[in-house]
Design brief:
This protein has about 450 residues and is α/β, with parallel strands linked by helices. It is built from 15 helices and 20 strands. The longest helix is centred in the first third of the chain and has 26 residues. It is globular and about 70 Å long. This is NAD-dependent succinate-semialdehyde dehydrogenase. Belongs to the aldehyde dehydrogenase family.
């Protein structure tokens, strides 16, 4: 497996890193396991001080850290800075709240006595993280678990190695013991054959594709290891009326095109009731047509390049398949002929089940719009997807929109706003979007030993 920074805006290979040897991977796993023995006994208050220092470092170095994101995966500068600031908030959140979460809850046993369930650490954990939010995805996993007393082995995506390296450096600079967090440039075979089977590793968290999730889950299951999986999404964006169409369109553009359309929780299927369809779609297509992909290092750029040329080409194959089978192109639809991984922001209509765009996740700036007769049909279409990560419902009657949101089969549904994130809001999905939750109080529970402490009734 190659680890290399290839600037998606230019196609230039900037920096390459060697994959670790088998012995280096074995040594890293051993070091992580040894570090756990002492880290688990470090007072939570001391862990919190170091975690707050991490947050400070992210804020102090936001420009530098954001530039790495822009150079490696094409994230527009303003959005890259936004990611850095969200990450700082996650580290602060768990520094402030982990100790309270770990206290657990008191029970009233029917057999008498006193009982309490507390959260305890479990050991070394493996994180397998994607390229689209190189810092945020890591923080969701690492912050609660390091605060809990677990140690981390982190395998990042091959196209963001500098993002991977700098995060390990930040843990060291913040003052964490060296082996509490270890970056490993491992191959997929090394992960399957060396890391997951090792007794020191107690769990695996993966954010990525369905294929990767299924493979890792199978290996983890064979070795009796817990998994958390955050996989794909094909989030519905349901429009009930056009009474606030300008607001709805603004949210639709942001919800689909942010992060260059490369987020699991981007709105991807725009399901519009027929009475609102023409008004919404006309304005939405016009807005998307007006988006000019530009230099991601420019403060004013909203849409940059796709992460890699290969990823861009896969998206274009999905778009062309739909066009060839009768879909209408309302905006964009073409590859941009220049060095790097560029394409136009696109809106497709008249997409039918035999087209790839109907069931597959399109991981780029492509929106698919559907017309439905009523709310029941909107729900039926929304829930027909094999995914169930996020979703949005827009309507002038907020109470009615909320009732529709309750019927969407998804881990997260937002009313009159696009799917978002915050340190204290749980994140995760159902169906083929994965298992488990990150962030909020739930994020610290996934790899915790929910330990029962019981004392007998006093005589």
């Amino acid at each position: 497996m190659a680890y290399a920074t290839v600037n998606p805006a230019t196609g230039e290979t900037v920096k390459e890193f060697p994959t670790a040897t088998d012995q280096e991977i074995k040594d890293a796993v051993k070091r992580s396991g040894e570090a756990y023995k002492s880290w688990r006994n470090t007072p939570v208050s001391e862990r919190a001080q170091l975690m707050h220092k991490m947050a400070e470092l992210y804020r102090e170095r936001k420009e530098e850290l954001a530039k790495i994101l822009t150079d490696e995966m094409g994230k527009p500068k303003a959005q890259a800075i936004g990611e850095v600031m969200i990450v700082a908030g996650i580290y602060d959140y768990y520094a402030d709240n982990a100790e309270g979460f770990m206290e657990g809850r008191t029970l009233e046993p029917s057999t008498g006595g006193e009982a309490r369930v507390v959260l305890d650490s479990t050991g070394s954990l493996l994180g397998i993280m994607p390229w689209n939010f190189p810092y945020y995805q890591v923080a969701r996993f690492a912050a609660p678990n390091v605060m809990l007393g677990n140690t981390i082995l982190l395998k990042h995506a091959g196209n963001v190695p500098q993002s991977a390296v700098v995060q390990e450096e930040l843990f060291h600079e913040a003052g964490f013991p060296k082996d509490v967090y270890i970056n490993i440039f491992a191959s997929n075979d090394q992960i399957a054959d060396i890391v997951i089977p090792d007794p020191a590793v107690q769990g695996v968290s993966l954010t990525g594709s369905e294929r990767a999730g299924a493979s890792v889950a199978a290996t983890a299951g064979k070795n009796l290891k817990k998994v958390v999986l955050e996989l794909g999404g094909s989030d519905p964006f349901i429009v009930l009326d056009d009474q606030n169409v300008e607001r709805t369109v603004k949210n639709a553009v942001m919800g689909r095109m942010s992060n260059n359309g490369q987020a699991c929780t981007n709105a991807k299927r725009f399901i519009v009731l027929e009475d609102a369809y023409e008004s919404f779609v006309d304005k939405f297509a016009q807005a998307v047509q007006g988006i000019e992909p530009g230099d991601p290092s420019d403060d004013k750029t909203f849409l940059g390049p796709i992460s890699t040329v290969g990823a861009r080409d896969e998206i274009m194959e999905q778009v062309q398949d739909a066009i060839d089978k009768g879909a209408s192109v309302l905006a964009g639809g073409k590859k941009i002929e220049r060095d790097g991984a560029w394409m136009e922001a696109t809106v497709l209509a008249d997409v039918t089940p035999e087209m790839r765009a109907y069931a597959e996740e399109i991981f780029g700036p492509v929106a698919v719009v559907y017309k439905v007769k009523d709310a029941d049909e909107a729900i039926e279409l929304a829930n027909s997807s094999p995914f169930g990560l996020g979703g949005s419902v827009f309507g002038a009657d907020e109470a009615a929109a909320l009732e529709i949101a309750k019927r969407v089969d998804s881990g997260m549904v937002f009313v009159n706003e696009v799917t978002g994130t915050a340190p204290d809001l749980p994140f995760g999905g159902v169906k083929r979007s994965g298992v488990g939750r990150e962030l909020g109080p739930f994020g610290i529970e996934e790899f915790a030993n929910k330990k029962l402490l019981h004392t007998p009734a006093k005589k």
